[in-house]
Every structure is written in C-alpha cells, then in structure tokens.
Amino acid sequence: MTLIDTRPGVVATLGELARRHSLELDTDEISSRLGPPLAHLLAPYVEAHRMDEVIDSFREVYAEHAIAPTLAFDGAHEALAAVRGHGGRSVVVTGKFAPNATLHLQALGFDVDHLSGELWGAGKGEVLREQGAAVYVGDHVHDVEGARAAGALSVSVLTGPCTAEELRAAGTDVVLPDLAAFPAWLDEHVLDRRLAALEADLRARGSVLVAFSGGADSAFLLAAAVRALGPDRVAAGTAYSDSLPHAERSPARDFAESLGVRVLTPTTHEMEREGYRANAGDRCYFCKAELLDVLSPLADRLGLAHVATGTNADDAIAGFRPGIRAAHERGAITPLRDAGLTKEQIRAASRRWRLPTWDKPAAACLSSRVAYGIEVSPFRLARVERAEAGAREALAAAGLAVRDLRVRDLGERASLEIDRDLVTAAVATPAVLDAVRSAGFPEAVLDPAGFRSGSMNERLPEPERYR
Prior knowledge:
Keywords: Hydrolase
GO molecular function, one term: hydrolase activity
InterPro entries: HAD-like_sf (IPR036412), HAD_sf (IPR023214), LarE (IPR005232), Ni-pincer_cofactor_biosynth (IPR052188), PGP-like_dom2 (IPR023198), Rossmann-like_a/b/a_fold (IPR014729)
Strand content: 5-15%
Protein name: Haloacid dehalogenase-like hydrolase
Pfam family, one: HAD
C-alpha cells in the first residue's frame, strides 16, 4: 500500500549523498521518478563501478535525513483503519530498503501486519501471494505489474509519477484520486463481494422459506432470495403469536407480497413451552425452537429445500444469542451470516436496492422487553405493546421524533428507553410516562442512558451472558 510522500526526504538525502561523493545529481528529476529501485534512478549519474558504494551510503544517511521530512499521504491512516475495520490485514511491499521502510512506519504510527522491502514490479507478486493479498494499492505502473503477478485486484492512486491514463494502460482495475477516497471504495468493494457471495449461496440452495419477521435483516434476505431464485422458489413465513406486535403484521405482509412471494402466517405457540414462559436467560432458545419446529414442516410440504433466518455477521459474534443455537440445531441456514454481511452492510445494500426497510429501527419481539426471571404472559406482552404505542404518541404530540423506543417490563415498574438525545426533552414532558402508566404499569421511569439494544442482558449474571 502506498502510504507516504518520500520526495522531501529523498531530496534531502540525495543532497547529502551528492556532497559526500562529489556527485552532480538532479534531485528534482530523480524525485519525480520515485518508485523504481535506487540503482535505476541513479544510473544516469553514478558510474557502474561506484553504484554499490553510493547505494550503501544512501541507506546509511537516509535515517538521519529522510525520516523526519517524510509525511503520510492524506487519508493513509484512515485507509489502514478501513482495512482493519473490515477484518483485513495490511501488507506493505516496497522497493525501499526494509530497515528504512520500518523507520517510516514507526515514525508515522502505521499499524501494518507485514513489511517486505527491496521488491519491484512483478517481483512483488510472490510476497503478495504468500500474504494472501486480495487488493494491492500503488501509484506506479510497476505496482500494477505486482498486483497482476499476485492475481490481486490492482487499485491505483494518483499520488505518484504516473497518470491515470498510464495506469489504465498498464491494466489497473481501479483509479482513485488519492488515499482519502480509499475507505469509501473499500466499503463498496467489500459489500459487492459479499452480495455476490450471498447470491451464489442462495442460487445453490435451490429454494427457501425465509423466516420473515418484517425487520430489516429478514426483509433484505427475502428480497435477496427473490433476486437469486425468483419468487416461485421463495416463500415468507411470518409467525403470528402474542410476541409479534400487531403493528408489525400488515407492513410485513405488504412487503412480502410486493416481492411476489407466497406469504405464510402460521401461529406459533411458544407460550406453551415452559422454558419460554420461565424467561430465564435462554428464553430465546425456546422461542426460536418453536419457530423452526413450525416452519420446517411447512417448508417440507411446499417442497422448499431450506428454512433461512436473517441472522447476520454481527449476530454471530454477539455474546448472547441462544436463539441462534436453536436454529442451528434444527438445520436452519443463515445466508447473511455466511456471506459475512453486517447490519450496517445490510442497511447499505437495502438502501441501494431501494427497500423501504433500509432504515427501519430494530424491532425485537415483545418478550425481549420482559426482565429475565419474570414470567412471560400474554397480559405482560399486551401491556408492553400498549405502553410503547402510547409513549410514541405522546412524544409525537410533543414534537419529538423518536426512532428507537422500548418499554422494559421490570415487574410492576416500567423503564422507558428512547433515543439518547431525546431523554432531556422527554423528562420535561410528563405525558410520556403518563402514557406508559395508563397502559397498566403502576410505576414508570425514564432510563437516563437511553435506548440500547439488548439492555436486558446487562441484568444477567456475567456467566449467563455468554451461554
């Protein structure tokens, strides 16, 4: 990856080199051609029999004269952070003398995973292959050669001596104006690759019944399945029970029908499962078990090969997801997770596809509002649903546009969580908590920390959170 502008430092070092060895060096001309090995750059100015001596001297004085004047290109640190943010590794493969390149990395605080020096052109390919590089960023036509030799995608930035036309003629895949443009490009590139993986996975499945709650994840999965397989080989299964808010049902059906798929609305009976009602830390296990035990026979009867859930890559690394275990035990597939798609990427792709759910707030089931250890019942779920609807209406009447809102049932006391930036205004609006009390809660308080997904897990003993 091209990270630094070495021209000021090289000019300073060449000046010292010329003084020590009585050389006539055109430092501006040499610094305008940086990229090739030093011997190539000095060839017009240094006799062949003196070249090794001069190069050794250049390396010796480089640390004193070149490190301090060398600056990072704009966006260099952000580019490395973007790679790390996507779970990638950063590899620097350079023509520079490796010890001096290491000094640059240390001086500028670059966090990289591997450095190889004194490599040029196609010679970079072997190291890039060994390091598993999928993308190589450079600013010279010979960097394009290195990417091609490694079978990596060549991304070129216009921070070096080569023009966009020269880089394209050399076969680069992408030209960016500078490294500042790299993070946005990388986001799109990674998303494209993961969407392609998702499509390939779904095509290979043949047919699917999507466990469709109406939320952003399952809506995106349903749309992706229709794109990959066509509506005739896809169905949406939305389970109706006390834990699904009535306000979610019609929008979910409308969305699925807009895609042309069959919509199934079987009734699930998780309330009949003792483990669900008991509402210990593993409640979601029993809920998901009930869902899959209902949907799987439906898929079989319809001749659909798989039941797919909207589990995403973020869910897979979350500390407490017993429902994922229940679904896995029952053979459900997780195409979004398998493709590596995060919640943020699902929203970005949904927006790209113009799905109305792209910015839909998270909407966990009503049972997630009941504190662990308090028995789940239809009465409690209905009370929570009324309280949330009332609080939303009161906030809207006060001119407060809320996005995320939860009423947590703590027994006979309700804790209202709303967007953090609205908490102060809501405190000054008594009608908000009055609406929660009117729904049937004797007491109601506003959580000063604001909304956060999974806040009930904070109340679990530490070992329970990771079961």
